[in-house]
Structure formats: C-alpha cells, structure tokens
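Bit of a strange request maybe. I'm writing a small parser for structure token strings and I need a real example to test against, not something I typed by hand. Could someone generate the tokens for this chain?
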Amino acid sequence: MRVDAGTGLPLDLKLKSLGAQPDDLAVFLQAAQRCVSVPAGADVIREAEAGGQVKVLLAGTTCAYKRREDGGRSILSFQHPGDFCNLHHYVLPDAEPGIAIQALTDATLAIIDYRDMDGFLARPSLASALWRASLLEAAVYRERLSSTGRGTALERVAHLLCEQLARREAVGIHAPRLPLSQIDVADAAGLSVVHVNRTIQVLRKLNVLSRARQAIEVVDREHLERIAGFDGSYLNMPNLVSRWSVQIE
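Reply from user aminoacidic:
Good idea to test on real output. This should exercise your parser:
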C-alpha cells in the first residue's frame, strides 16, 4: 500500500507547521515507497531493531516505551498521526538504547529509507522541518521527564491529557475522546493503575471527563487545563525557531 494525499493529510499539516514548503510533501510521499499496518498491542519498532528506515505514523496512536526491571512499562512519549516514530535514530543511531515503539491502536505507518532521508537534506525547507521535528520530540521528552513525580496525581494526569489533545489538534484531529487506556495513562504518568482510576473518577465527578465507562473523553477542556496548570508553549518550539535557518553544505 502506498501513501496518498488523503492518508498523508496529518503528515502534510505537521510538515507545514514545521515550516516545510507545499511541494515538500510531494517529495516526502514519493520517498514513502510503502506503508504498513500494525495491529493494536504489537511493536512497531522493537527494542533491538536495526536502523536503516524511519517510520512515520499516518493513522492510529503509538507510544515510545522502555521496560522496567520488574517487567512493567514506562511510556516516554505518545505519537499521533503525522509524528515520526524514530527520527532520533536517524539523527543519532546509537542514542536511547532499550526504547521500543508500540501500537496502542491499529496503526498505519509510512516507511522512509535512510538514503531518502539523506536526500531530504538537499531541500533547505524540508531539512529545517526535520530539524524542528527533532526539537519538538526533545521538548516533549523533557516535559515528560520533568513532570513525572511533580505535582499531584490529578495535576499530572490532567497535564498528560491536555498535551495529547493539543498535539492531535495540531494535525487536524479535534475529537474530545483520546485513544488511551487507563493503563497507558498510568505508565506515562508514573502512577499505579489504581491511582489513575481514582483520578479519572474525580475528573468525571467534576464533569471534566465524560462518565462513559472505559472511554477517556474530555467534556470541559478549560477546566482540565486549569487543573493541570497547562502551558503548551513547549509544543510551539517549531514556531519559536521558525526564523532560524539551517545551512546545508
């Protein structure tokens, strides 16, 4: 299966938000020789998988995670449509050992060979977009590391949900329901599932989340942001550096 303009819409919005030019998407899609479907629960990228390809999420939700010594899972970040799953491996092949990418829902991904990624660097606007994408990934990682263990469980869960809503809206996904389970939230917030369940119940009683069982659906975004003390400026890093230029020689 090939990537087309329809399936590539979130990627198009993401690249444009990073400063790419209109014709950059066509070049990017031409390099995406194929895309693959991965079922929920399966690894998109295994811990010891060799490099050579960059995978871009077109549909679904994935997470970057690391196994703890007790066998549990620590989620470091989530990926939404338009996000790169392993851009950091292309930039620094030996960085962050032990990290894998798992599909949290059924997912569709485009595959880009490293040689095509090398070709993108000859296009200044596309090279700058990729650089800014790596900065955005780093900003999300830093926020996750700094927020784990900080604030109350209610604040941490609220902040996590606010971030995912903001990132999904940036690629045209405005649905209030998040494709995350309470287990996913617990593994990302550094809390037990029982603690997260109690926190979700509090948010439901406050009429911030829908009372629908199993679903995590935000019905009062402003209240959620107040609880979290959410400041999404770290997600605007591409805009903050949009005046910078990258000189490729």
